[in-house]
Amino acid sequence: MAVTIKDVAKRADVAPSTVSRVIANSSRISEKTKERVREAMKELGYHPNLNARSLANKSTNTLGIVMPNTAKIAFQNPFFPEVIRGISMKAYQEGYGLYLSTGQTEEEILEEVKHMVYGGRVDGILLLYSRVDDQVMPFLIEQGFPFVLIGRPNDIEEGQVTYVNNDNFKAAKTVTEYLILLGHERIGFIGGNLDYVVTIDHMKGYEQALTNANIPVSKDYMVHHEEVKEGG
Amino acid sequence: MAVTIKDVAKRADVAPSTVSRVIANSSRISEKTKERVREAMKELGYHPNLNARSLANKSTNTLGIVMPNTAKIAFQNPFFPEVIRGISMKAYQEGYGLYLSTGQTEEEILEEVKHMVYGGRVDGILLLYSRVDDQVMPFLIEQGFPFVLIGRPNDIEEGQVTYVNNDNFKAAKTVTEYLILLGHERIGFIGGNLDYVVTIDHMKGYEQALTNANIPVSKDYMVHHEEVKEGG
DNA sequence: CTGAAAGCGCTTACAG
DNA sequence: CTGAAAGCGCTTACAG
Q1: Protein-proximal nucleotides of chain C (any atom < 7 Å from a CB)
Q2: Which of A21, A54, A157, B183 could anchor a disulfide with A26, C-beta 3.0 to 4.6 Å?
Q3: Which residue of chain B is at minimal alpha-carbon distance from A1?
Q4: B-chain residue closest to A57, CA distance
Q5: CATH number attached to the domain at B5-48
Q6: Contacting residues of A for B74, CB less than 8 Å apart
Q7: pLDDT digits (tens, 9 = 90+) for B174-230
Q8: B211-220 contacts: CB < 8 A, separation 24 or more?
Q9: Backbone φ and ψ of B6, nearest 5°
């Protein structure tokens, strides 16, 4: 029962196509007509149906966000809130909406990504993590679906993936070197799940710094955060 | 160029409407036909266009999530990750997707909610916070749009709002009483922004406990987390 | 500068 | 049990 483009057209005494063009602010419509149509839209309280638009347009103005099994790990880590905040701001400015993955396992997440892509729910995807044996990226690449990875692709050839990363190897190495500089030798490493590339990079940087300083690397000083099991 | 219901229909030698019914698993279609159609879907790699479905159906299978200015406060607070995780799990199970608000200010958020509602982007909304002088709930109520509030409505009459809350007044009171029981008298209160109902309830509980114990309430012992200004 | 018509890919009465 | 047709609310060539 919502107000449609037809109602507006009738009210402004123009064709629906004209209303559509006014909405798109087409330069081919006279200012006079535009004003009349806009007035009618106001009076009627018109708002476009986004699903109809998406269908006709084949574009959704929505971005898909894929996180590692929702919140379980994701939100414990201050990185994700921060990155989502940045994404939100820009998305808002550009008039894009955000569609969130909800899967709890790798399989669920893959299924959801397929759903987003095949269903035409989103125009592009933001992958907020990179992991070994990832299924999602290969799927996206195969589909030729636009996406950006935050992190570093692992097994995938350069040029296949657009990504944004920071040098986690170097960061961890620098931190470790600093501790060594302070004279410490028994330096611990508390890392994330080793399935994530970021964790691997951190660990390698840590190990490299130790090795360079001729300090033996010992598993006894290394702890990894395992994924919490459901209900655990 | 994606495979449509028509392609499947042709392949299975049935009408598009039949394919649609097979997808919906209508009991009015013979098992034989169902199998033939399903086979055709497999072979062709058919996946429904969700926008078309939403348009025809007037339903999106998507829930809107509205958070206090994205992540800025939201994700610092472990409450939100946890609640989003719960929402995600259930949403996934029920085949619902999640659409996230991205606004940074109250005005932006309201605008977004209108966008979701008018645009037909979501079937219902989950409000993850309750604040004084809130604009969002009145709008939703006026529109008769389904939503659930997490928290307690402030200025709104009972029965107008479906909400899930815990007794923050009592919780804060109990905590304070415990400290009093231990013999403390100079008890500090570190609270959130006073625009949020939860903060108000906490503070009232704290104050009540003090008052009951004849301990004077002093502003000197109270600190409130103000919203961080952009770039601050 | 504007309109009539077809199309986007589904669903759902209405018939039979 | 199945099909033809209309409809959901937009957009966009094609004409004029």
Answers
A1: 1-5, 7-13
A2: A21
A3: B58
A4: B51
A5: 1.10.260.40
A6: 81
A7: 999 999 999 998 999 998 888 889 999 999 999 999 999 999 998 889 988 664 443
A8: B212/B177, B213/B177, B213/B180, B215/B180, B215/B185, B215/B187
A9: -65, -45
CATH of A58-164, one of 3.40.50.2300, 2.40.40.20, 3.20.20.150, 3.20.20.10: 3.40.50.2300
Q: For residue range A99-126, list pLDDT tens digits in order.
A: 999 888 889 999 999 999 999 999 999 9
Q: How far apart are CA A118 and CA B45, in angstroms?
A: 10
Please give the class, per CATH, of domain A168-224: alpha beta
Q: What distance in Å separates the CA atoms of residue A118 and residue B3, rounded to the nearest whole number? A: 10
- Give the residue from B5, B76, B121 with the most A CB atoms within 10 Å of its CB, the best one to mutate: B121
Q: Of B2, B100, B112, which is closest to A100 when you measure between CB atoms? A: B100
Q: Kindly determine whether residue B70 and residue A60, on different chains, have CB atoms separated by under 8 Å.
A: no
Beta strands (DSSP E) in A75-129 are: 97-100, 124-127
- Residue A204 structure tokens: 């390698």
Nearest residue on chain B to A60, judged by CA atoms?
B51
As annotated, the residues of chain A forming the CATH 3.40.50.2300 domain(s) are 58-164, 168-224
Inter-chain residue contact B75 with A85, CB threshold 8 Å: yes
B100, A102: Cβ pair inside 8 Å? no
Q: What is the pLDDT of residues B25-81, one digit of tens each?
A: 998 899 999 999 999 999 999 999 999 999 999 999 999 999 887 545 556 677 777
CA dist A221 → A171, A202, A206 (Å): 19, 14, 11
Judge whether B108 is closer than 8 Å to chain A, CB to CB: yes
Size of interface A-B (CB pairs under 8 A): 136
